[in-house]
Amino acid sequence: MSVAPVPTIELSDRFARELAELAVPWQAEPAPEPRLLVLNEPLAAELGLDPDWLRTPDGLRFLVGNLVPGGATPVAQAYAGHQFGNYVPRLGDGRALLLGELVTPGGKRLDLHLKGAGRTPFARGGDGLAAVGPMLREYLVSEAMSALGIPTTRSLAVVATGRPVRRETVLPGAVLSRVAGSHLRVGSFQYARATDDPDLLRRLADHAISRHHPAAAQAEHRYLALFEAVVAAQAELVARWMLVGFVHGVMNTDNMTISGETIDYGPCAFLDAFDPATVFSSIDLGGRYAYGNQPLVAEWNLARLAEALLPLFGDDAEQAVPLAVAALGRFREQYGDASLAGMRAKLGLPATVPAAEVASLTADLLALLQANSVDYTSFFRRLGSAARGESEPVRELVLDLAALDGWLARWRALAPDGAAMDRVNPAYIPRNHLVEEALAAAVEGNLDPLGRLLDAVTAPYDERPGLERYAAPPPEGSTDYVTFCGT
């Protein structure tokens, strides 16, 4: 590791200074032969970084953590978490480093973070490395999520390290550089609470308020207001996941952010055939994080955050617990409102249609999709054509035509707006079979399929000639899909 002035980059070590108890200064392992695989030039420009410099040898060394700007203090962050419901008091960044915080030209403060940069004190026996495939998956899916308008961490670059990584086989290694509003998690607060240090818990909460929810600072009960803001942000986030058919796959409390951004794209995927019981993760044997369970899991995780924050809500449990329960109790209403508003938009229905009618239509439609194993994304995209009088594209997807035609008649009577539907129902998502095709080619050195898929999913609503296969349902026999955490 070398330290050199990088005039185009200034990184703050604010987190390391303000919350030293949660930060272990550490350095990335040397990458013997860094080679750029993909660079997000539009994001680099947003961050005030020079894409041309990032492509240079020094730029690549910066992207893998081997060239650190003066004044920066890379750290591995400490946090705890419930993993599949089981509490682990010390998790932390086992293969990740926070390089520091940068301020964009627009004045926004963001974390610059590395994944796959080598073992840290939190590695727990792991090698701290990452393979090319999983890092490109995170790049691809996180950028697709951003294009869909879903709050998410963003991917700046994936750099091959020239170091082999041993998993089931020997794979080429890589480092992902990503940005986020911050990497504060529910697990960060669980860790602080477990130290039994009220001052640390308070400083962490103040840091979160300053970074993400500044309005809470003006509230009569600022820490309760912080919790309420996180509840609202997560209700909106999970509703958006559900509306596009996204399955996170590993909703542990250490993967729930205080900012309300999606984080960790390991065992994640999008629905093909609609089924609430869908699970893609190889390690989720009990279906805890199935698609249909995600709202309940989010509420459960937020209850753990409330437990961690409880000493800040009041001087004793009798005072604090009712406040926490009342704040958490708003999650279901907020999630329901966000889900209903999203479904109203997906169905193209005007505001004059009563909420009860939207809810009834939605429930009947989802039951129909599940009973007929209908591709979720294709159905809603084609439904826009049905609003314009072209029913055959959507009828091709459903076996029970009598039930579908009856539903269509009810829906059309409400005057849906097909053009508005096309603006919210994507034509292109990172379809699972296309993701695997692109990643397999990339591991073998061919990045063209990845580039074509990225082109489609980063403009998901703009249907374009020549991209028909990216909008099509998966071929028969490709629906039994399993993803892995990459470690």
Structure classification: alpha+beta
What is the oligomer described by this structure?
single chain
Largest sheet: 5 strands, antiparallel
Q: What count of helical segments does DSSP give?
A: 19
Share of β-strand residues: 5-15%
Q: From the alpha-carbon coordinates, what is the Rg to the nearest angstrom?
A: 23 Å
Explain the overall architecture.
There is one protein chain. The radius of gyration is 23 Å and the shape is globular. Helix 8 (222-244) runs antiparallel to helix 9 (294-313), helix 9 packs antiparallel against helix 10 and helix 12 packs antiparallel against helix 15 (401-412). The two termini are 24 Å apart. It contains 19 helices and 13 strands. Among the domains are: 2-180, no CATH class; 349-416, no CATH class. The longest helix is centred in the middle third of the chain and has 23 residues, at 222-244. With 487 residues, it is an alpha+beta fold.
